[in-house]
Each structure stands twice: as C-alpha cells, then as structure tokens.
Specification:
Helix content: 55-70%
Structural class: alpha+beta
Strand order of the largest sheet: 4-3-2-1-5
Radius of gyration: 18 Å
Largest sheet: 5 strands, antiparallel
Shape: elongated
Number of strands: 5
Distance between the termini: 11 Å
Length: 163
C-alpha cells in the first residue's frame, strides 16, 4: 500500500477545495435566507420561508413546498457539515482522526449535499408558477460550487494516494 501524504496549503489543491466550499456556503446561504426564489409580475416575491406582497406576508402549506424546504434545508446542513470537515482537514492537525478519513468524509458529505439540493431544485422547478429569480439562482450557484469542491476532493485523494 503506498504511503498517504496529504499536501495541505491554502494556495494548493486543498486550498482550492476550501475556498470553493466557502463560496458555495455564501451563495447558498444567501439564496436560502432571502425571498427572491420566485417573482410575479403582480409584484409579490416568494422565498423558501415566506411570500411577500405589499407589506403582507404569507406562508405556504402545500406539501410540495414543504418537501422543497426539507430538501434544501438538508442540503444546507450537509454543506455546513462539509465546510466543518474541510476546515478540520485544513487547519486542525492534532486530531485523532486521520486526514484520509476527513477528506473521504468531506467528499461524501459534499456529494450528498448536492444530491439533496438538486432534488429540492427539481421539486421547486416542477411546481413553481411564476419566474424563477435571484435567490433560486444563488442556491443553484452554491450547489455548483459544492459539486466542484467534491470533484476537487477526488483529485486531492488521488494526489494523496487515498484512492
């Protein structure tokens, strides 16, 4: 079995993973928390958590909308877990966990996050009635960056002789 050596640097491949996940978290969190998922020409905005129109707020109780909320929220939780994992991989060197276990965990968490995000996007995209807007796009951009980070992690594992 070849020796596993992890080259960890903010300027290297592992740094690329870290910065890509940071970008993913920023975009995804902004899209998650704002009410610009859908916009109507009648002047109302729909987000994951509320619909706003002329100073009035409404909340959706439709099952498909709750399913979207669940999938997008699970995606966010897994994205934050992957951020914590890559942070531990990059900056904490005195853990009893191996670097190999951390990069594998990160890769699994990041891919699972993308799966749940995409399921949420599909549900919302199939059921929405008006124009998709910037908050939805921000979440999609966050998912794309998360996917890129997971792919980079595979290259990091190959470079470290993990796979």
């Amino acid at each position: 079995m070849p020796i596993q050596t992890h080259q960890i640097s903010l300027q290297g491949l592992s740094g690329g993973i870290f910065w890509t996940v940071m970008i993913a978290v920023v975009f995804y969190a902004l899209g998650f928390a704002t009410v610009g998922w859908e916009h109507s020409s009648r002047g109302w905005w729909n987000g994951l958590w509320m619909t706003c129109t002329s100073g009035t707020t409404y909340y959706s109780n439709e099952d498909w909308f709750k399913a979207t909320q669940a999938m997008i929220t699970i995606g966010l939780i897994l994205l934050v877990a992957s951020l914590i994992t890559i942070f531990l991989y990059m900056f904490i060197h005195s853990l009893s966990l191996s670097k190999t276990a951390l990069i594998k965990a990160f890769t699994i968490l990041a891919f699972l996050a993308v799966v749940f995000m995409v399921i949420g996007f599909i549900i919302f995209g199939a059921k929405h009635k008006y124009d998709l807007n910037w908050s939805f796009v921000f979440c999609v951009i966050g998912a794309v960056f998360c996917f890129i980070a997971a792919i980079l992690a595979i290259f990091q594992m190959k470079q470290s002789n993990v796979v």
